[in-house]
TrEMBL record:
Location in or out of the cell: Cell junction, Adherens junction
Function per UniProt: May be involved in regulation of cell migration. May regulate cell-matrix interactions via its interaction with ITGB5 and modifying ITGB5 cytoplasmic tail interactions such as with FERMT2 and TLN1. May regulate ROCK1 kinase activity possibly involved in regulation of actin stress fiber formation.
Chain segments annotated as transmembrane: 464-490
Chain intervals for the UniProt region annotation (Disordered): 353-377
Name recorded for this polypeptide: FERM domain-containing protein 5
Span of domain FERM: 1-266
Xref: PANTHER family: 4.1 G PROTEIN, FERM DOMAIN-CONTAINING PROTEIN 5
Origin species: Urocynchramus pylzowi
Keywords: Cell junction, Membrane, Phosphoprotein, Transmembrane, Transmembrane helix
GO cellular component, one term: adherens junction
GO biological-process terms attached to the record: actomyosin structure organization
UniProt xrefs under CDD domains: FERM_B-lobe, FERM_C_FRMD3_FRMD5, FERM_F1_FRMD3
Major localization listed first in the record, in broad terms: other
Length: 537
């Protein structure tokens, strides 16, 4: 990338590579060295948004879930949304009853391995695949039963379409959870869906607010405010606390973008939003894309031959092992990677056995991402829920976005080539081979050498200096306005009632004759002296 290349250029390049026209639903996500997730802003330079050294690792994700995914125009778009929702299901974001979970998993099986074949699919074949963070034998038998008896003959495209139709009916469809705490200190997850703002606690949806009821969103530090106006002029302010100021700002920006995308009729109605009412404090943000209605109208005009879809290798999912992709190798340098020669089915069997029917996730990884002040949330996050039988704790909601398979190897090699050897911690994390260790190692490899202020401290100092500068500019502006008003009062011939009343007061007359007139004569004298000096020289 050129240094001044905008995010829009990179996104268009990626969509061209995928042959994707309905691209407004998608975005590019990355994780900064402080493990905070961000959406790449298309109007800004890519390099300036990265607080790390290249190579940069980013992920293609669904940013705005379609209100009706089955109504998408092209099959390639539906397939990419299918991959995202399949990933949500695997990470416990998409909660559902056991019967719905079995049907969704059966659709995935049908889409990826086709019709049931006794010769290829022995007894218990559904247990070799990981669809959810947790599995049970009863659920696996139900998945196999539906796949054998109800889905025979469905093509991959039909199975994916039926999967999307079913997923759309679930309460947590489109949820991208942000971990927070309410005013009582209870853990909660905030999310923005195609239909409104959602708050989840335990395995329940405690708040659902439609987009037309949300009047304002703002944040101050770690505190997020949502202003709601419901029927009978009832106004509510919901307050939540994010783990860090950066997390709160990310939550606020996501809310602004989602409300603009789903609520507005056209993009010309988008306005710049400020996070605070104070004149010299707060962030300003503006959504820069098209809105949902415009996207649907544009999609209806697409007229081309449907692009070919390579389901086996179009978008391999690292976090959700695809049946067609085989086992995932550990992201350690090849010099230390053990050769593994096993079949696809054996690899998935070993993956399932090593995972113990839960996602590969450690308490230390969750704690590392949570950072200080989130130990209370970390305790509750150990209980991973899948099918709405336990507390709501999306496995991936507090983890860094999974990254490319070979990125860690490239980063470590680039550091060694530059004469910067890997630290002992990086070596240990690289050899660990778990998603936690891989993400930590990649983020560590992204960080430049130690010394000086850290990124977070430098950002806080910059914000403080900007606030001081704004205050100084406001003060100078007010003084200038007062001086202009004083000149008008003393020197102009305006004879309005307002000016006449001020001029007739004893205080103003005393100020005019005792202070202003001598000061004016002094300035005039100095000015004549300077002019004479210039003329003489």
């Amino acid at each position: 990338l050129q240094r001044d290349a905008k995010g829009q250029y990179l996104f268009d390049l990626l969509c061209h590579h995928l042959n994707l026209l309905e691209k407004d639903y998608f975005g590019i996500r990355f994780v900064d060295p402080d493990k905070q997730r961000h959406w790449l802003e298309f109007t800004k330079s890519v390099v300036k948004q990265m607080r790390a050294q290249p190579p940069f690792t980013m992920c293609f994700r669904v940013k705005f879930y379609p209100t009706d995914p089955a109504a998408l125009k092209e099959e390639i778009t539906r397939y990419l949304v299918f991959l995202q929702i399949k990933r949500d299901l695997y990470h416990g974001r998409l909660l559902c009853k056991t019967s719905d979970a079995a049907l969704l998993a059966a659709y995935i099986l049908q889409a990826e391995i086709g019709d049931y074949d006794p010769g290829k699919h022995p007894e218990g074949y559904s247990s070799k695949f990981q669809f959810f963070p947790k599995h049970s034998e009863k659920l696996e038998r139900k998945i196999a039963e539906i796949h054998k008896s109800e889905l025979s003959g469905q093509t991959p495209a039909t199975s994916e379409l039926n999967f999307l139709r079913k997923a759309q009916t679930l309460e947590t469809y489109g949820v991208d959870p942000h971990p927070c705490k309410d005013v009582s200190g209870n853990a909660a997850f905030l999310a923005f869906t195609p239909f409104g703002f959602v708050v989840l606690q335990g395995n329940k949806r405690v708040h659902f607010i439609k987009w037309n009821e949300v009047t304002k969103m703002k944040f101050e530090g770690k505190t997020f405010y949502l202003y709601v106006s419901q029927k009978e002029e009832k106004k509510i302010v919901l307050t939540y606390f994010a783990p860090t100021p950066e997390a709160c700002k990310h939550l606020w920006k996501c809310g602004i973008e989602n409300q603009a995308f789903y609520k507005l009729e056209k993009s010309s109605q988008v306005r710049t939003v400020s996070s605070s009412n104070l004149f010299f404090k707060g962030s300003r943000f503006r959504y820069s894309g098209r809105v949902a209605k415009e996207v649907m109208e544009s999609s209806a005009k697409i007229k081309r031959e449907p692009p070919e879809i390579h389901r086996a290798g179009l978008v391999p999912s690292r976090s959700c092992p695809s049946i067609t992709h085989g086992p995932r190798l550990s992201s350690v340098p090849r010099t230390r990677r053990r050769a593994v020669h096993i079949s696809i089915m054996e690899g998935l069997e070993s993956l399932r056995d090593s995972a113990h029917s839960t996602p590969v996730r450690s308490a230390s990884h969750g704690d590392a991402f949570a950072g200080p002040g989130r130990s209370g949330r970390a305790e509750s996050s150990e209980r991973v829920a899948v099918i709405a039988d336990e507390s709501y704790s999306p496995a991936d909601s507090v983890l860094p976005t999974p990254v490319a398979e070979h990125s860690l190897e490239l980063m470590l090699l680039s550091r060694q080539a530059n004469g910067a050897p890997c630290s002992i911690e990086e070596e240990k994390e690289s050899e660990a081979g778990t998603p936690a260790a891989e993400a930590e190692g990649e983020l560590r490899a992204l960080c430049p050498g130690a010394g000086g202020l850290g990124p977070a401290q430098a950002q806080q100092v910059n914000k403080f200096l900007l606030s001081v500068l704004r205050l100084l500019l406001v003060t100078i502006g007010l003084l200038f306005v007062l001086l202009l008003l004083l000149i008008i009062l003393t020197e102009s011939d305006l004879d309005t009632a307002f000016f006449r009343d001020i001029r007739q007061t004893p205080e103003f007359e005393q100020f005019h004759y005792q202070y202003f007139c001598p000061l004016r004569r002094w300035f005039a004298c100095k000015l004549r002296a300077v002019v004479n000096l210039l003329i003489d020289t």
